[in-house]
Structures are given as C-alpha cells and as structure tokens.
Design brief:
One of its GO terms (molecular function) is iron ion binding. Its cofactor is heme. It comes from Xylaria grammica. It is a single chain. The protein has helices spanning 3-32, 44-48, 51-58, 62-73, 91-96, 129-139, 145-150, 152-170, 179-196, 202-205, 212-226, 240-247, 256-269; strands at residues 76-80, 83-86, 113-115, 118-120. The termini are far apart. It has 13 helices and four strands. Helix content is 55%, strand content 5%. A hairpin with a 2-residue loop joins β3 and β4 (118-120). The protein folds into two domains: 3-103, no CATH class; 142-269, no CATH class. The protein has a two-stranded antiparallel ribbon. α3 (51-58) runs antiparallel to α11 and α8 runs antiparallel to α9. The chain is mainly alpha-helical.
C-alpha cells in the first residue's frame, strides 16, 4: 500500500466519527425537507425519522396520540418524513377512490405470508393495483348483496350457538366472561361457517382452536410497529436466511388459518391423507 493509501486510512480512522455525524445530519435534514412536506405541521422528531412513529405504535397508544395531534394541528398532520395523516372525511374519496393514483404503502407487504421463500400477496396485502383488480374480479360475485343474503342462515346458526354457549358457560359463572375474547371466538366461527360451511370450533370448545387467535395477536403486535419501517421486516421475519430455508422446505411458515382453510378445501375436493403437510398439492399437477 502506498503512502497516499496509508494517509487515507489514517484520516478515516481519525475522523470516522465526524464523518458519521455529518452523514447522519445530512440524512436528517433531507428527511425534514423531503418533498416539501415541512410545510405541514407535526412533531419535529416525526419529520426527521420514522423511528418516532415506530416508537408510538410500539407503545400501543398511537391512536390516542393521533387524535391529540389533530386536535392541536388540524386536519393534516405530518407523522413521518414521507407520511401525512388526514382527519377530514372529505379526503377519503381522494385517497381511496378508484384510479386516484395512490398506491398502498409497503406497510402491507409486512403482512404478507411466506410460501416457498417468497412473500405471498393476498387481496388485502398486495400493493399491486392490477393484481388487486384481477383477484377482486374472482371474488366479487361472492360478496354481492344477493350472495350475502344467502349466507344469513349460516350466521344465524352461529348466533344461536353463541347465545346457547354464553348462557351455559357464563350466566352463573362467578369468574365472569372475557367478552372481547368471546366475541373473537364468535367472529372466527361465523367466518368459518360462511366461508367453508364449517365452524372452526371456538364456541363449542371455548378455546383458541389451533392457536389461531394467539397467532394473529402476535402477528399484529409485530406488523403494527415494524410496518412503520417496512425494510426492517427484511432483517427479521423475511430475512434472506429464513426465506431460503422456506424455499428449501426446511422451515414451514404456514399459519394455522391457512392449514384450516386447506383442510376444508381438501374435504370439499375429497382429498385425504394430507394432514398438515403443505408440500402435497391439493390438485393434481399436470
């Protein structure tokens, strides 16, 4: 190594801390004035980094903070370098209307499951408008008003069971009822009966069947804060090592809801012997 190279390394060793401070400062200033969003009011730290919003969501009181901020600053509040919060209902049509040019953020990608080493987009978690439109066309008829009316008997069946089980389990129960959890059980059983003509069994068994509720609770506790800085998901749940292990079939990232749906589809198709082995196809491969 020449003298110039040695001097460069020496300077780098002596001033790396100063360089890091300067780079960080430039990055924060860039965030502060990004896309001229500095004209919108909001917490100063929020204008510098999304870490402010992650911390707020991590504390599980972000909705309280948002209401206070809107009460203080008005209908539009800056919650991040590239994030605005709107409190005016008139903004709904502009933001969520068809062909308005607004694309869902990467927050939704964090909620995607993993299949064979890749993120698995759904109607809810996709950020691709074309894919969303294509998938929506496939299910539109199932959610038309005429179709929804036909589901009413399934909902009625579960409502009857809900009242029967509520009376049997809790009317004379001095310990009381965790009503939030009980309503979750009811909701999942309604969805199961409407979708698959078979309840999950939450109400009958009065327990978290296959850990579905617990799984979703933990998932939301992860998705909510990490979704504020979506690239962090690539370091945690969707890191390259985990994705490769999933691709090779060494780890199974299938969640319990998918396993239940797969079992119901297998019943409808008359396929047996699958168990929880997701490597076996439901339909023959030609």
């Amino acid at each position: 190594m020449g003298i110039e190279g040695s001097m460069a390394l020496s300077l780098l060793a002596d001033y790396w801390a100063l360089g890091a401070v300067l780079i960080t400062g430039a990055w924060l200033i860039r965030n502060r004035y990004y896309n001229e969003l500095n004209k919108y009011p909001g917490p100063f730290l929020a204008s510098l980094t999304d870490l402010w919003r992650l911390w707020e969501v991590w504390g599980r009181q972000s909705e309280v903070t948002h209401r206070k901020l809107h009460a203080r600053y008005g209908d539009v509040v800056r919650l991040g370098p590239n994030t605005l919060s709107f409190a005016d209902p008139k903004a709904l049509k502009t933001i969520y209307g068809l062909n308005k040019g607004f694309v869902k953020s990467d927050f939704y990608i964090v909620q995607q499951g993993v299949s064979k080493g890749r993120g698995l987009a759904t109607l809810f978690s996709t950020t691709d408008n074309s894919f969303h439109a294509q998938l929506r066309r496939c299910v539109n008829s199932a959610f038309s008003m005429s179709a929804l009316v036909q589901y009413e008997p399934f909902v009625t069946n579960t409502i009857k069971l809900f009242f029967e089980q509520t009376e049997r389990l809790y009317v004379n129960n001095a310990a009381g009822c965790d009503f939030v959890r009980w309503l979750q059980f009811y909701a999942f059983d309604v969805i199961g009966e409407v979708t698959y003509s078979k309840r999950h069994g939450f109400l009958e068994r009065n327990e978290d069947v296959d850990g579905i509720v617990n799984y979703l609770g933990n998932l939301f506790l992860y998705v909510a804060p990490i979704g504020q800085i979506p690239w962090l998901d690539r370091l945690f749940l969707k890191n390259p090592i985990y994705l490769k292990l999933s691709e090779w079939g060494i780890v199974d990232a299938t969640n319990p809801i998918v396993l239940f749906a797969r079992a119901r589809m297998a019943e409808r198709l008359g396929v047996s012997g699958l168990g929880n082995d997701t490597s076996k196809p439901l339909l023959p491969i030609t």
